[in-house]
Specification:
Ribosome assembly RNA-binding protein YhbY; single chain; RNA-binding_domain; four-stranded mixed β-sheet; alpha+beta; globular; RNA-binding
Length: about 100
Amino acid sequence: MELRGKQKRFLRAQANHLQPLFSVGKNGLTPTWVAQLNGALDRRELIKVSLLQNTAVDVADVKEYIEEHSDIQVVQTIGRVLVLFKPAEKPEFQDISVQVAKI
């Protein structure tokens, strides 16, 4: 599902109050880290990821890695923080994706 402008704006507004759940540190990006992101997004649908000061990768690298190795969509990047969205597979966790589909 490719997000349109209004849908991204809605998701950015929903993510405004969230704190980053995951961080990218000196270990960098691994398939295990992406699998953990997928697991968290299956229950929450919208999360933030921050890049620590000691990481060797930059925001563009993280965005590219996530989009290549999963079906997670990067909604926004603000400084060293990324906002990620993925519709949940189970209907009981599909709160945000139902609202996004209506927009």
